[in-house]
């Protein structure tokens, strides 16, 4: 189930038969976390993934990022195989607060370019741009502890943006935020996606978020995580959070929930 | 209790005044204790008049400094190594937990046999006392580094060295500071207690001499000096630690 009629030239990142099995450890036996999964994501696509808790969503994302090696199968990014290292051109925003408390906002954002071999004038320009884009201008010299959770997550997004990633992977980045902030952050994410032209993969447990933001939404089964369905949303590229009042949005989320309901129940009973 | 610091000060001041009073009216006799005001006078007098004062003070200060350094730097490195070897850590963990329940001073005579009655014995005594606090603090500090930082390092594609210096070291700082403060405190105790038992120089040795000579004023002057010195070091390190914690965890 890889989405209909995607030609090879437009494929940006793909997984073929990807499986992840965690070996037996003291305390538990072998855990089959993920797959097998086949997936093709188009260049410039906004791809959402929803699934019950513990279904291997994060493992999927970390496999795409090259942070986790699949037990079987291969991942490909821009035609090259992903092998245990994070390929150039991929940015990741994690679920946890990954801002560095010992650095100011500015320095945190700049940190993204530490290895990129970019000259200092260019660094300053990119940091300015990313800080501006994420609305952090007034807080440039603040430390993360002085910011709210949402602001800190923006710092992490800005730190990712300075590297100009062509593929941005987000693992429940707004999980810790309240509903209103989530909607607004979602809009900002859409704006970023349009402005940068990057491909975006968003892992979320919020059906609304996935339905509102994505071009396609993949629904995962409980562990071992597989794709049950991939739904096309058909939203225009210049959408914003107002799509939630569109009747199609209601239909979409209810379809997502129908698909997820049994899986979530399964996940709950095995926890 | 709006100002705990003021109350604390008031209690200390009250206790000092009470002792002063009890000494002055003779309830506490002069051989047991001199009035606090005379302790201060004795301290000032020996610092300007006694030829042994500065050499002995320097000797103690230097030994504490070296012992602290030998607790902190090797302690940190040993902590790093043990952290990298979970099996070794499992073996050593009970040792660390019970280390401070063992009176380390029983080894001082052994140190004297090995190194002689000199600074080396005192330094090793102080370092032995301080190093385990630093090793333990290093282990905790590395444990507490959020795992996500490691992932960020890989996404930014830092080398292992850059990850260690740019991420792990700063991320471990607050807990390392706790270890440093404890290492200093334990080194002070180790060195001065060693001097107290047997040594050729140092404030602890002077303290024993004054005690044996019934020179109560000198003895209390020295106690006051050691007390003030330890308090200052502790306050400075605590402030520094507090400032780092505040910056990190203000929210």
Overview of this protein structure:
The complex is a heterodimer of chains A (271) and B (251). By secondary structure, chain A is of the alpha/beta class. Chain A folds into two domains: 8-89 and 165-270, P-loop containing nucleotide triphosphate hydrolases (Rossmann fold), CATH 3.40.50.300; 100-164, no CATH class. In chain A, 34% of the residues lie in helices and 23% in strands. Chain A has seven helices and ten strands. In chain A, the strands form two sheets. A six-stranded mixed beta sheet of chain A has the order 6-7-8-3-9-10, with helices on both faces. In chain A, strands 2-1-4-5 form a four-stranded antiparallel beta sheet, with helices on one face. In chain A, strand 9 and strand 10 form a beta hairpin. The longest helix of chain A is centred in the last third of the chain and has 24 residues, at 247-270. Chain B is an all-alpha fold. In chain B, helix 2 (36-49) packs across helix 10 (216-249). Chain B is built from ten helices and no strands. Chain B has a single domain (50-249), classed as MetI-like (MetI-like fold, Orthogonal Bundle). The radius of gyration of chain B is 22 Å and the shape is globular. The A-B interface holds A 62, 65, 67, 85-86, 88, 90-92, 94, 96-98, 100-102, 111-112, 114-115, 143-148, 160, 163 and B 146-149, 151-152, 154-159, 162, 166-167, 170-171, 173, 247-251.
